[in-house]
Amino acid sequence: MTIIRRDPHAPHCPPIDKMRDLIHVDCASHTYPDGSVGIHDMCFYVLKEEIVALCGPNGSGKSTLLEHLNGLLTPSQGDVWVNGRSITHGERSDLWKDVGVVFQRSDDQLFAPTVLDDVMFGPLNLGLSHDDAEAAAMSALEGVGAADLVQKLPNYLSGGQKRLVSIAGVLAMKPKIMVLDEPTSDLDPLHSERVERLILRFKREYGISVVIATHDLDLAARIADRVCLVKNGSVFAEGTPAEVFYNPVLIEEAGLALPQTVRIYLDYCKAQGREPGQQPIRREELIRALQSSPSLKSDR
Amino acid sequence: MSSTMISSHIPDLDLITSYAQREGTFFSRVSPWTKFTGLFLVVLLITLTRNLVICGVLYLIILGVYASAGLPVKKLFAWYTLPVLFVISLVGIMVWTEPGTPLFSWDLGLVTLTLTDNGVILIFTLLLKALISVTYSLFFLMTTRYQHFSAMIYRIFPAPLDQIFLLAYRFLFLTLSMTGAIFKAVRSRGGGIIRSIRVQGRIFAEVFALVFIRSFDRAERVHQAMIARGYNGKYEAGTVIPKPGFSGIFLMSAFACAIAIIVLGMPNPGGFF
Asked: Looking at the domain assignment, is residue B66 inside a domain?
């Protein structure tokens, strides 16, 4: 895969491939009632069992796009296809069954008296019996490692626990696609790592496609299969994490900062006075790259 | 003082809920239906009687029950401020028209206000009635787990009242925490220092407006998050409420009988003594 650059002023979205695309956003624009433009000429797609990271600074339109994927918003222009169905022209009332959304602020999501009641909310809306909904909720809570919180009140949970319960609330509905808005923001490193591992597990064990909106490029570098850079309400470039993050011009254009791994490797190569030969993205790749570096080998 | 507490004289919802979630005490294991029946009977008794002695005895019993449940008595007395102020503001008008033996007269020129013995008794009776209902309500709330309480609301109230109550719980906490955070931010920049009524009034008005706008925004986001999980206007409380045991039924039946005897058996149940 090579970096695909899109011109927001002359967009050209590839046509939908219903066999391939779980989500296909076709030149969608959304204008809020106050006249502000949330997204415009947005081209975006998600494949089966793929983790896509939408990266962009605050206010770039990531959250607006995410709300289109679940039918919470409909495009003013263009079209959004989910699982082969157009949400703009067709029925979107049961879209929530396919696309689960984990909101940025868990306090917006957790409303029920207890954790169990909250996680059961989705399965009950799916029409499951009380016992089946409870079983689905318990299974989801065990899946995220929060089964011990089952009788707790959401008000007394820590930020990290609230995030895990929010994720369980969506996982219990067994969605095909999971959309997470800033999944690790405001979390301590341990909970961030837990959420990261969970996202990888959703893809591996449950076959769920995941879309994350984040301005944490380190997170995107570690878990994403594909990175889409968003600026001013439009995806202007996309590619694999290595392709995108080893393009400092692109990252600067997006108004973001290079991931730590990339920065360390590039600084190291610069200090050594040589061209970067590899493109390490994850920590273990960086360690391997540094270990295989000629200067380090000669030091030994 | 918890983060959501605005004043020590206003019942702290956080504290009330944290006591309610404890499972170790005897009263927290009693069926919520038994305690709710108790609340109904207590309200019935104080509605039917004007007897100061009965009210006094009932208040002492309920205060004893409250204390024996391990609930904070000092805080309870601080929380009495609002009901006491409410009763005094109400009785302050009624007390001067009460017939009886005059104790004190106040000549205002156009009218003369006279305080009678029955007027004084009325003050204490109404105060006790208010404190009884407040103490028992707090005892009920602080010994009943929230999930049971909300499930009871779901079963007792018709739609949409049940939905409003059920959703209000989390929202109330969030709004209180938001208000607390704004007040902290105001105080942290010297905003808590009283300079003038005008300045202070403006600050309170601004905080109120901000809380209103943010609450509205928050409500919108909570609603969206619910729709994202298939909310269709009906939320069901799934918690099973423990049924009352034999001892609970017996105790409440005995209490109901006692009320009947007190009200029907006394020569003057509506009298002050």
From this structure: yes
**What span, in angstroms and rounded, lies between the C-alpha atoms of B235 and B223?**
12
CB contact under 8 A, A130 and B238: yes
Residue B150 within a domain:
no
Q: If residue A299 lies in a helix (H) or strand (E), which one and from where to where? A: helix A294-299
Contact (Cβ atoms closer than 8 angstroms) between residue B19 and residue B26: no
Q: How many domains does chain B fold into?
A: 1
Please check whether residue B101 touches A, CB under 8 A: no
Shortest distance, CA B146 to any CA of chain A (angstroms)? 7
Is there a domain that residue B202 lies in? no
User: Residue B159 falls within a domain, yes or no?
Assistant: no
Joined together, the tokens standing for residue A300 give 């030994």
Q: Which amino acid is at A2?
A: T
Half-sphere exposure of residue B38: CA atoms within 13 angstroms, side-chain side:
27
In this prediction, the answer to ipTM > 0.90 reads no
Task: Select the residue of A103, A113, A121 nearest B169 (Cβ to Cβ).
Answer: A113
The pLDDT tens digits of the residues spanning B142-200 come to 999 888 888 888 888 887 888 887 777 667 777 877 887 777 777 767 666 556 667 77
Express each pLDDT in B93-124 by its tens digit: 888 888 888 888 888 777 888 888 888 898 99
Cβ neighbours of B125 (radius 10 Å):
23
List the structure tokens of B127. 């105060």
- Catalogue all structural domains in chain A, each as residue range(s) with its CATH number: 13-257 (3.40.50.300), 259-300 (no CATH)
| pTM for the model | 0.79
Query: Whole-angstrom Cα distance, residue A98 to residue A119?
Result: 17
B236 contacts in chain A (CB < 8 Å): 124
Residue of chain B nearest A66, judged by CA positions:
B228
DSSP state of B243: P
Domain containing residue B76:
22-144+243-273
Sheet with A51-55: strands ordered across: A4-5, A234-239, A226-231, A51-55, A209-214, A177-181, A99-102
Largest pairwise CA distance in chain B: 69
Phi, psi of B60, rounded to the nearest 5 degrees: -65, -40
Among A268, A266, A239, smallest CA distance to A254 is for A239
List, run by run, the mean pLDDT of 10-residue segments along chain A (300 residues): 68 75 86 86 90 93 90 87 80 82 90 88 90 94 93 88 94 94 91 93 93 93 94 91 92 92 92 87 90 66
Could you tell me where the DSSP H helices lie in B144-245?
A: 146-156, 161-188, 197-227
The closest alpha carbon to B124, from B182, B200, B204, B50, belongs to B50
